[in-house]
Amino acid sequence: MSSNSGIQIPSRLPLLCTHDGVLLPGSTMRISVDTARNMQLVKSRLLKGTSLKSTIIGVIPNTRDPEHDSDELPSLHSIGTAGLAVQVVGSNWPKPHYTLLITGLCRFRVTQLLRERPFPVAEVEQLDKLEQYTEGGQADGELGELSQRFYQAAVQLVGMLDMSVPVVAKLRRLLDSLPRETLPDVLASMIRTSNKEKLQVLDAVDLEERFKKALPLLTRQIEGLKLLQKTRKLRPDDDKRVLAIRKGGVFPGRQFSLDEEVEDEDGDDTAMLEKKVKAAAMPEPALRVCLKELKRLKKMPQSMPEYALTHNYLEMMVELPWSKSTTDCLDIRAARVLLDNDHYAMEKLKRRVLEYLAVRQLKSTLKGPILCFVGPPGVGKTSVGRSIARTLGREFHRIALGGVCDQSDIRGHRRTYVGSMPGRIINGLKTVGVNNPVFLLDEVDKLGKSLQGDPAAALLEVLDPEQNHSFTDHYLNVPFDLSQVLFIATANTTATIPPALLDRMEVLQVPGYTQEEKVEIAHRHLIPHQLEQHGLTPQQLQIPQDTTKDIISKYTREAGVRSLERKIGAICRAVAVKVAEGHKVSRCMCREPTLRNYETYTSPPEMPIVIDHIALKDILGPPVFEMEVSERLTLPGVAIGLAWTPMGGEIMFVEASRMEGDGQLTLTGQLGDVMKESAHLAISWLRSNAKTYLLANGSADPLEGTDIHLHFPAGAVTKDGPSAGVTIVTCLASLLSGRLVRSDVAMTGEITLRGLVLPVGGIKDKVLAAHRANLKRVIIPKRNEKDLEEIPAHVRADLDFVFASTLDEVLNAAFDGGFPAAVNHPQVVSKL
Ligand code: ADP
């Protein structure tokens, strides 16, 4: 080829020596520059020069590895490619280097090396014509025939690729518009060829020879593709993908390239995903979406941010248990034994759970209600849920909903969001890996609400058996069948569960435990469990029943057993230290004053270590709760009420005092509106009945010249509800009459202005609280009498219940010797 027409490259070129990759005219290549000479070339030529000429350099392939690059310039390949440096990117990490993006222009031959340092510069002879691509003159003879064959082969190859990929379509157009003589270089740089083969094409200066060298490579590629099509028998799309196309290859001004290495990695990855998608046994709509996304993924360069997003999405989709499930192994008798073994007491709950399971056994497609266990913390709600999963042989997953206030927590974020991810339900399914687990929705009463939507509304869809077979997570954007999932919810109170949600659930109350039940639970479950957790055996540590009772009454005040379990844990830890230290501990600690004394002994401890009340004090410190009831009732104007809180029942003191004033009522102790109204009601009733009960001290109004202050201790806790009405009346009656309320009486009940006592809720928890506090008499509204059935018989036996329908009955029961009204004994009273 002569160089006497068209565009000329400079006759002197700086030389960039590469050791990997061969730049052919018409293609673009990234070259990493890290040898001293090449660095110098980039610095002083490319980075300093501003003219177009300065960006043209000669690329000499196949130079020795830079590792061995010494001062001496190695012998250079005589033919190279003049290239245009399109981009220079510098980096200092891990060591200083540049990356050049170079587009090959034409061949040249080195005629004379002019200098070697700091970088080689040579006198060159241009070998290819560089013309505008408009000439398009057809060659004749053998060359013409060769170029025609080559062109046809190229068209055939492109025809086998996926035309919907834009770069392939572009290539197809380019085949027609490019001059034929450029085709061998362009195609050789795209198809699967080794460096050696590329070098042969580069060295073929004669055009005919170049066609001859490149044609077999092209045919080989076509044959390879055909073979793959035959053996794979995949869809046409897959066949066409055998050559992936990625950016990087640039024909001057027109980009395209087929790069093998990256394509392979990329191809492996997507092929693997594709396999997984097909193996995931998804329902039709999900599969369709996956295949569509997969198709998009194949066309995307890996560097595109969307690639990672789509990839993650597909990974998520294939990991979901679309059709993986465990087989239920339900045997009601075994379930009963298991539930009984795992949990002491809670008979009612266990009975209902067994009924539920029995129905499931008879009808596996049960669209029954969602069970919701409601009760104070630590009463075993979660633990029963776990047992249900075990009896069914299902996976168990707990979803904590406390504080969740964004509906996308349940339903996921749309994929358009940065950092989007599926909601907790779908994530849970991915974690357990089966589509029929037991999901425990913990603390549904503590769902929040915010600007980001109402998570309870999202839960509605999850829990509705009519809808949840097509639950659509925003992230997945395809329905997932949740109908096989067994949902169980837990809550401390139903008051804060959104009504629509509550409507979907069957509420099972789990009340607190009595002291006796707690002792049993401790000895049957908590102590053995804690011993095991701390690596101890019953031969090493024994906690007698009396000690357990002490722990329950003096160190804990709760409806459940969680803090009892913690205290037992603390004892185990203290003993574990002793056992591990090998100090002598006497057989019974009651003989020794404190644990500290044992440290003076050095022989191994004598087993078992028995915890008595002194050792208990030593480990847990002084008692946290003392029975203070009787001490507090030494003055008139104090009465004990019973309150219900989400933590269980509690006893509550009401205190009143009077002082000179003008009939004002002061209320303190964080009261809600209903409670304030109760206080006003109580005052009004007492004022109107002052004469009857001789409270007014001669005058018509007991509040004349007096201010009254009512206080509800534990002022940091907000209290509300009408059930303190009777207690306030009793307390004020005591204050005004100057008589002491019985110190072993607790009461609850709403009052009316006419002195009637109305029923209230939470009777079981309240009665248990009174029992815990060792009170003897409990006054409850008459209409609550039926609620006593739920209370264990031994608790009922310990307490004296008074069922009151009027305030008169309440007062009579609350004071020793009754609270006589004047009408009954007018003479006696007036004399007093
Ligand atoms: P909740 O979910 O009601 O707050 P958990 O289920 O977490 O309470 O129970 C706390 C601990 O108390 C667990 O270790 C559990 O095993 C134990 N527990 C509670 N009730 C019982 C019971 N009736 N029998 C045996 N262990 C119980």
UniProtKB/TrEMBL annotation:
Active site (UniProt): S723, K766
Domain Lon N-terminal per the UniProt entry, residue ranges: 13-222
Example GO biological process: protein import into peroxisome matrix
Intervals of motif Microbody targeting signal: 830-832
Domain Lon proteolytic positions: 633-817
Pfam families referenced in this protein's UniProt entry, alphabetically: AAA, Lon_C, Lon_lid, LON_substr_bdg
GO molecular function: ATP binding; ATP hydrolysis activity; ATP-dependent peptidase activity; serine-type endopeptidase activity
Broad class of the protein's primary localization: other
UniProt GO cellular component terms: peroxisomal matrix
SMART domains recorded: AAA, LON
Gene3D superfamilies, sorted: 1.10.8.60, 1.20.5.5270, 1.20.58.1480, 3.30.230.10, LON domain-like, P-loop containing nucleotide triphosphate hydrolases
Highest rank taxon of the organism: Eukaryota
InterPro entries, per the entry: AAA+_ATPase, ATPase_AAA_core, Lon_bac/euk-typ, Lon_lid, Lon_proteolytic, Lon_Prtase, Lon_prtase_N, Lon_prtase_N_sf
Class of this enzyme: hydrolase
UniProt keyword terms in alphabetical order: ATP-binding, Hydrolase, Nucleotide-binding, Peroxisome, Protease, Serine protease
Compartments, as annotated in UniProt: Peroxisome matrix
Positions contributing to ATP binding: G375, P376, P377, G378, V379, G380, K381, T382
Matching HAMAP family: lonp2_euk (MF_03121)
Role this protein plays: ATP-dependent serine protease that mediates the selective degradation of misfolded and unassembled polypeptides in the peroxisomal matrix. Necessary for type 2 peroxisome targeting signal (PTS2)-containing protein processing and facilitates peroxisome matrix protein import.
Family per similarity comment: Belongs to the peptidase S16 family.
Record-given protein name: Lon protease homolog 2, peroxisomal
Source organism of the structure: Cyprinus carpio (Common carp)
